[in-house]
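Teaching note: in complex prediction, the entire set of molecules is handled at once rather than each chain in isolation. The prompt given to students was simply: 'Predict the structure of this complex.' The entities are:
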Amino acid sequence: MTWDENGKIWMDGEFIDWKDANIHVLSHVVHYGSSIFEGIRSYDSNGKAAVFRLKDHVKRLFESGKIYKMEIQHSESEIFEAIKETIAINDLKECYIRPISYRGYGQLGVNPLTSPVKTAIAVWSWGKYLGDDGLENGVNVGVSSWRRMAPNTLPSMSKAGANYMNSQLAKLEAIENNYDEALLLDSESYLSEGSGENIFLIKDDEIYTPSISSAILRGITRDSVIKLANDLGYEVREEKIPREMLYLADELFFTGTAAEVTPIRSVDGIEIATGKRGPITKKIQDEFFNIVEGKSEDKYNWLTYIDDSDKK
Ligand code: PMP
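The expected output is the structure of the full assembly:
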């Protein structure tokens, strides 16, 4: 990950120098975790910045806010345009995009309604989240002793900052145990997701992924992969999946904006099949990267191109 500290960050309608993009220490979000955010990627598609599923990410940001009655002070189309402008002004093609809305400086106390809702957008270069090698050879993961939040505690379909305290516990444990990533089970001990990724499993030529009743974030890459798998002739079964299916799988992979499509080589020290990226995973990866890099037709209109006219 590379920050460009000479870059500009959008804060509620204005571009602020990177180093001045600060908030007050008594902002509500600092104390009570009251933020919602998105992670979006832009690719270099034949020399142009192409943002992957921008409209869907902006929609999910607003949906995350809706659950917490956090009213973003801009419309979806304003945020959509502001993201394009932020990429253009920072002259980036391949980048990671982080819009975030948060309860700002107002009053402290759990009641969030007395703090203003603020929004910021930052962009920066970020390579392969789980490593270049991971995309080809797969990563080693461990099932966490921490469970994903139960559905009647924190709603996993809101991409809220506070959810990532749960992710951090799992990630810390994974690091401690020398795994590349953690895998969490839901409160009933069915498969849920990684600390920042959804998971797919292939067994006897069938593709499975945990359903939305397993405390997952409804990943936009997950949705894209389901569509690509359907195009390849596979139906994806969204259901509750018992833990042991992990060890018996023919192929496993993670999906996510940061992780893209990353194969999993082992779980809890047990090798998955031959311990190499499987053929169906490779096919799905190829379909995905060909679209985002502009090498094959963008048949679902997933890409939003940025050009100089976006520098307003
Ligand atoms: N689950 C969690 C917990 C995540 O943080 C992410 C990354 N946003 C995902 C799944 C994957 O979602 P997406 O494909 O929309 O990035």
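Point out the following to students. The CA atoms of residues 95 and 119 lie 19 Å apart. DSSP finds eight helices and 17 strands in the chain.
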